[in-house]
Amino acid sequence: MTLQTTAARTPTAETPPAAARKRSLFAACSAHAVHDGLTDVVYVLLPLWQSQFALSYAMVGMLRGSYSGVMAGCQLLAGRLARRWGRKALLVGGTALAGSAYLLASLAGHVGWLLLALVLGGLGASTQHPLASSLVAESYEDSGKVKQALSNYNFAGDIGKTLIPGLLGLLLVVASWEVGTALVGLLGLAAALLLWRLIPADTGQAAAGKKSGPQRSGSGKGLWALLGTGTIDSAVRMGFLTFLPFLLQGKGAGTAATGVALSLLFVGGAFGKLLCGYLGARIGMMKTVWVTEATTALCIVLAIWLPLTWLMSLLPLLGLALNGTSSVLYGAVPELAEAGKRDQAFARFYTGTIGAGALAPILFGRLGDLTSIPSALQILAGLLLLTLPLSWCVQRAIERNAAALGGGPGQ
User: Fold this and answer.
1) Are 379 and 366 in contact (CB under 8 A)?
2) Which of 79, 245, 300, 394 is the most exposed place for a label (fewest CB within 10 A)?
3) What sequence ranges are listed for the domain Major facilitator superfamily (MFS) profile (predicted)?
4) Could you tell me how far CA 29 lies from the centroid of its own chain?
C-alpha cells in the first residue's frame, strides 16, 4: 500500500497539476498586465509633468528613457539574482518596488525626485519579463502547451497597456496627477501581494534540481539567432510606430483619425499575440515567422501607397502581423535554453528586444530626417526580410535539441 501510494504521488511531485498550472499562468498574466500598464502610464503623465515642472523636451525624453533603459539593462541581473534569492521573492519584490516608485513620484516636488522614482520603477520592472515568462514555461513544460500559455501571457500584457493608462486618463479628468500617480502605486503594491499568494515557492530551484530523464543542453547559436530575429522584429515594430502618425498626417488624417488608427493597430496587435502563439504550435515557429514577417513587410509597403481610407482598413491586419511574431519567438526560448537557465535566457532575449525597441525610434527618426518617411518605411520593410534566414537557423537548432532529447522534430 505504501509503495503504491508513493508511486502515485511521484508524478504529482514532478509534474504540476492542471490547477497549479493555471494558478501560475494567472500569476504571470497578472504580473505582465500590471507591469506593462505601469510602464505605459508614463506616457499619460509626461505632458502633465512637463507643464508642472517646466521641462524641456530633452528632459521629457530623459524621464521616459530612464524607466525603459533601466528596465532593459537590469533584466540579465534579475535572471542571475533569481537563482540566488528565488524567483518568487524577486518578482514580488520587483513589483512592490515598481509600485513604491509611483508613490514616490506622487510626492515629487522637483524633477530630481521624478527621475529617481522612474529609475527605481525601471529597476522593479526589470524582474517581470524574464521571471514571469520562465514561470509560465516551467509550469507548462510537461503539458506540451508552452507556446499557447506564453501567447496568453503576452496577450495579458497588451490588456494592461490598454486598460491601466486609459483608466488613469479618465481619472485625471477629475483628480490631480499626484492622486492618480499614488493610486497607480497602490495598484502595484496590491499586485505584489497577489503574486505573493499565487506564485509557488522555489519553483526555479525545483526545476533546476530535476535529475530524472534526459537534460536539455540548450543551443547557444540558436539563442543568438533567436535574439537577432527578435531584435530586428522589435526594432521594425517600434520604428513603424514612430513613423505611422506622420504617414497618416501626410495622407490628411487629423488628430482624431490618428487616434482611431492607432487603436485599430493595437487591437489587431493584441489579438495577433494570442493567435500567432497558437498558430506557432500548429505549423511551427519558422513557418509562422515567415508568414507574419512577410505579411508585415507587404502591409508596410502597401501603407505607403494606399489612400487613407484603405490604409485604415488595413491596420488591424498589419497590427496582427506586426505584434504576432513576438509570441512565437518567446515560445522558442524554452526550447533553446539550457536546463535550469531559462531565467537567464529570457532575460537575454528581453534585454535585446526591449533595448532595440528603445533605440529604434532614435535611429530611424534620424533616417527619416536624412531621407523621407516613405523611404524610411521601405527600408524598415526590407530589414524585416533578414528575419527569414535567422528563423531558419532557429528552427534547425530546435530540431537538433528535440532529436538529442529523443523527440521528433521541433515545432
Assistant:
1) no
2) 245
3) 24-399
4) 11
The answer to the question of residue 1 being in a domain is no
In tens, the pLDDT along 181-206 reads 999 999 999 999 999 999 887 544 44
pLDDT band at residue 348 under the 50/70/90 scheme: confident
Report pLDDT for 409: 46
Which residue type sits at 377?
L
Q: Which residues contact 328 (CB under 8 A, 6 or more apart)?
A: 147, 276, 277, 279, 280, 285, 288, 289, 292
User: Sign of the CA dihedral 257, 261, 264, 267?
Assistant: negative
Cα–Cα distances in Å, from 250 out to 232, 245, 258, 374? 26, 9, 11, 10
| DSSP letters spanning 171-218 | HTTTS-HHHHHHHHHHHHHHHHHHHHHHSPTTHHHHHHT--SSPPP--
- Residue 323: burial class (beta carbons within 10 Å; 0-12, 13-18, 19+): buried
Q: What pLDDT does residue 339 have?
A: 67
Domain's final residue, options 176, 204, 232: 204
Whether the CB-CB separation of 267 and 324 falls below 8 Å is answered with: no
- Which residue's entry shows cell 514616490? 104
Per-residue pLDDT, averaged over 38-42, amounts to 86
Q: Is 36 inside any structural domain?
A: yes
d(CA 181, CA 106): 5
Q: How far is CA 179 from CA 102, 105, 162, in A?
A: 10, 10, 20
Average pLDDT, the chain: 81
Report the predicted TM-score, pTM, of the whole model to 2 decimal places.
Answer: 0.74
Distance of CA 296 to the CA centre of its chain: 19
SS3 of residue 131 by DSSP: helix
Q: What's the CA gap between 165 and 160, in Å, rounded?
A: 8
Q: Which of 204, 231, 249 is the last residue of a domain?
A: 204
- 316 and 181 in a single domain? The answer is no
Residue 359 corresponds to which cell in the numbers above? Answer: 533605440
Q: What angle do CA 208, 281, 284 make, to 5 degrees?
A: 100
Per-residue CA distances from 106 to 1, 49, 80, 103, 125 (Å): 62, 11, 31, 5, 18
